[in-house]
Structures are given as structure tokens and as C-alpha cells.
Design a protein that fits this description.
Strand order of the largest sheet of chain A: 1-6-5
Order of helices and strands of chain A: EHEEEHEEEEEE
Largest interface: A-B, 54 and 90 residues
CATH architecture of the largest domain in chain B: 3-Layer(aba) Sandwich
Shape of chain A: globular
Strand order of the largest sheet of chain B: 1-2
Oligomer: heterodimer
Strand content of chain B: 5-15%
Order of helices and strands of chain B: HEHEHEEHHHEHHHH
Strand content of chain A: 25-35%
Largest sheet of chain A: 3 strands, antiparallel
Structural class of chain B: mainly alpha
Number of strands of chain A: 10
Radius of gyration of chain A: 16 Å
Number of helices of chain B: 10
Distance between the termini of chain A: 25 Å
CATH class of the largest domain in chain B: Alpha Beta
Helix content of chain B: 40-55%
Helix content of chain A: 10-25%
Chain lengths: 115, 233
Amino acid sequence: MILDRLDPTVTEFAHGTGFELKPQGACKAEVCVPLPASARRSDGRVDVPAVAPAMGMALVADEAHGLWALGPVSGGHALSTAVVPELTLPDRDGNPFRIGALKGTKVFLCAWASW
Amino acid sequence: MDLPVWQVVRDELRPLGLEIVAVAMDTDGARAAGPWIDAAKPTYPQLLDPEHSLGALLGIINVPMGVWIDEEGVLVRPAEPCFAPRERGFGGMKLPEDAPQRMKDMLAEAAKLDVDTRIYAAALRDWARHGKQSRFALSPDEVVRRSAPRPIAVSQAAANFELGQHLHRTGRVEAARPFFRAAHRLQPENWTYKRQAWSMVDPLQGPTDYYDSDWLSDVRKIGAKNYYPKPDL
């Protein structure tokens, strides 16, 4: 997740990481990671420097451009759950395609590249 | 590219309730992958992942790699190499006599990669026919267990790569390179990070002044047999 400030809104954080902030912690599917009380600022925004270490997310700064990147959760496996995360990608013509729209069908998703 | 090969498999398995979704992990999106898609004219969904989000979300670290998702939206196989059922692997490819020497060396090395072009499609057919009863369909716990370990260095690599991507896409090409280099150093087994960055400078992914390594040197260093994670089928 690319950030231009270290206190995104809860909605921005959920959009960028897939984790929703709930009373029990940061949750995705059936998995919840407990967070310290300092995770939310008094104005309701997310305190990324407090949340990142609690979730094992790397926070990398690009000071020259005033940017940060927040990496994925670490400490376990690439998958914390077998439930497929919400995933929308553009098709060849730029139209958004939601993988979840294929529910009811078996899907073989194959990654390739021109290189 | 394997899009036409998978089209044949898709036509066979679609009546059994299976769909194939191809995702091109090119930073340049349709500009890079579009010509291949247009030439193959596949009838199954062709998506683009210019952000390389499949790496963080699913653990995809090279191509081709794939996952299986059941009718309920649950993974039944984690990210693993998904070789198309080609008649011939890299070893059967021939280059013209006047092809660059580097290309010939790369093909010679690629011929040594551990690529079985039969086993994956055979497993896919079995799953299409037998669903949950297929011996290749794994339980949710097993899918998670088999997905790659994710130490903090992998998260750091992803964050560095994302910054590099962002800077590159917004025209700050020079500023992007230290972040790409950091991603390569932090997660050397992630070939999508390396191949993407190398190919931005040299389509043959050879040595340049910008990166500490190149495809041929890195494959020789780890041994061609270790280039792809072993599929456990």
C-alpha cells in the first residue's frame, strides 16, 4: 500500500491492505490481529507506525518524495486463510473484473508475463 | 506464451464447470501484455496485474504460477508452478543461427529447468471432473500450510518493490531503481521482482549497470533445477 501520509482513514487502510479495523483488531476473513490502543488516533485515523509492527507489516520510507509503502503481513505464511481475498483486476481493455464474480465455478488462476 | 495452449484445456474443461483466468504481471499492463493477448484471442478472462498484487496476496514469485479456487471462493491449491501441457518444453525450442549468443545461452540454461509439461494439466483435469473428491484438492489448512513462509524480509521486499513500481510508473525511473535493488536483495527467490526490473532495462534481462545481477547469472548461481518451487502433486 502506497501512502503519502502516515495516518490514512480506516476506509483507505481497508482498501489498501484488505484489513478492516474492528474492536477485536485488524480483521480479514476469519483472521483478526490484535492491535495496541494507539492504533487509532483521536480523530479516528489509523496510526500506521503503531499498526505496522503489531501486524508484521514492513514500513518503507521514500523520504525524497514524501512517500511510504506498507508491505503485507508477515510472521506466518503467504496465506493466513484459504478464503480468497477480495480481488479486482483490470481486464485487457481496462474494465474492472472481480474474481469473486466467478463464485459457483471452479477457477484456475494462472499468472504469466510478457517477460 | 501459453495462452493458446490453455485455451485448448479451457474448451475441454469449461463444460465441467471450470474457468481459466489468466493474469499478466506486467508493470506496463496492456502495453506489454496486450499484443500477446490480441494474437492468442483467448475466450477466457485476461486480466492485468501491473501492481504485482498477486505476490503479496497469493505468494506468486515467478511465472507461470497458479492457484485453484473452488466454487465457494476457497483456495484448494496454493501458488505453485503451472506449466501448460506443451508438446515440447524449453529444450525443444530452436533459435536461428544468427540469434544473439546471450539468447542461445539463456535457452540452453532454460532447457535444464525442472519443467514437467504433463503433470499439472492432468491434475487440473482430475479436479475439474471430481471436485472436492479429487486427490489434488487440498483442505483449507493444508493450503495455508503449503503456502510459502513469509518472514519480515518478504514484507520489506514487497514494500520496496511497490515503491519502485510507483516511482517508475510516475516517471521517476532513476529513483525507482534503489527500491527494486532492495527488493531483489531482500527476497532473492522472487523472480517476478527481478525479471520485471531487469526487463525494463534489457529485454534479454542481461547484466546492466543498474542491477547487481541478471537472469543467466542468477539461474546458474542457484542451479536451473531450483528455479521453480517444486510442485507437490
